[in-house]
Amino acid sequence: MRARRKKVQNTRKYLRLRFLRVILATIGFAILPFVLIVLIQGLSVGNVPYTFNASDYLRDDMADIDVSAILDNGGSAAVVDGNLNVKHLGGKKIIESDALTKAEWTEFLCSIGEKSRYEYSVAYHGGNNIDAAIDDVIDTVDNVAEGDCNYWLVIMVPKAVTFDITLLFNKEAPDYKSTSMVFAAIFGVYFAALIIFVAFYSRKAAAELRAMEQVKIKEEEKRMLLVSELSHDLKTPLASVQGYSEMLLKGVDDENKKQDYLKMIHDNSVRADSILQALFTYSKLGSSGYDPKLEEADICEFTRLIVAEYISRFEEEGFKYEIDIPEDEIKVKINTELFRRVYDNLFENSMKYNKSGTKIGISIASDDGEVFIRIYDDGVGIPAENRDKIFTPFYRIDGSRPKDKGGSGLGLAIVKRIVELHDGEIELESMDGRGCSYKVNLRRI
């Protein structure tokens, strides 16, 4: 109970830390756009003035006007002289015509405020550097004096270039309220979305933690069950060893009984050792750092060598056999020592749990990059209600089949782990209640 409470406390602490990290990350991402804008502003100041005033570019001689900074940043410039002749200085043409009437020039000046994609600045040079707003420039149209030094300079810049974050802090700007409301709405939606994200992420993290805890609990239950089953399985042989050894220590006059007791001690010691060895193998194969060290091998040739060793035993114990192994080479990656245990265990099971006269078979086939190995028999089979549990550690069908010798209950669990270490799969195929058929799938190379 104390351990479970500690786990809950650790989970809550983890959630709080994770939530705090998400909040800090959210605030950081929220500030980042402002930092980037300010940084870009700082880098751009040397090249792009944020307020494009045409008066800054006026010169006494029109030939000396330098608008390269405007042109380099996507802007355009043009000069309209005292005779309303238009000279294009570069960029997109601001005025299509090369000469204007007073009416056309006035109309142009009145309409530039409607061109929402661009910012315009117009300045008049009348020999004494008159810098006027557009309305004032319009007034000079009828009063301009003729001369080479009298002209208008028109600058047109895309609005994206003239964006300045300081607009938000300029309460005197005519669009201050509407712009502030737009920005407030944007950031309101942005922060609402972030809050939703944080809430969703936190719930997801909590769900993942609960799932992890459930996995840990199940793994702990499996370990406890493993220990319980091991204790149960070792209890019987060890009790026999203890009981018979005590009888021998008390003294037994009958030599035959003494030999029987010694045999029982030996047999139960072997059984206990077999269980412990199987448990050691099962645990080793399931450890995270275990490397099976797979090597390329011809599965057909490898299988033929093992089957050749079993043929004499099949014949001695009265089993029939059936072999279907292709002559072609089929390459796979296996650990030959480990994979031999797959064959040994499945063949031994067929002989252990079936009567003489049972047919034991093996076949190999391949298709679409996979290899299919079937080891089967036509013996008593496994009851349908037990089929989905046979690969569970320490699961046995005690007494349900003839020649039941009470194995460790780890054999098929070890087989399953070995096959999985080879990136393969094993399943018990349906045989309609007659015999067993194990199919192993491996990847072909």
What is the element layout, followed by pairings?
Blueprint: H1 2-44, H2 68-72, E1 76-81, E2 86-90, H3 102-111, E3 118-126, H4 134-140, E4 150-158, H5 176-250, H6 255-286, E5 295-298, H7 299-316, E6 320-324, E7 331-334, H8 336-352, E8 359-367, E9 370-377, H9 411-421, E10 425-429, E11 436-443
Parallel strand pairs: 6-8
Antiparallel strand pairs: 1-2, 1-4, 3-4, 5-7, 8-9, 9-11, 10-11
What this model shows, in words?
By secondary structure, this protein is of the alpha+beta class. It has nine helices and eleven strands. It has helices at residues 2-44, 68-72, 102-111, 134-140, 176-250, 255-286, 299-316, 336-352, 411-421; strands at residues 76-81, 86-90, 118-126, 150-158, 295-298, 320-324, 331-334, 359-367, 370-377, 425-429, 436-443. The strands form three sheets. A five-stranded mixed sheet has the order 6-8-9-11-10. The chain has a four-stranded antiparallel sheet with strand order 2-1-4-3. Strand 8 and strand 9 form a beta hairpin. The two termini are 51 Å apart.
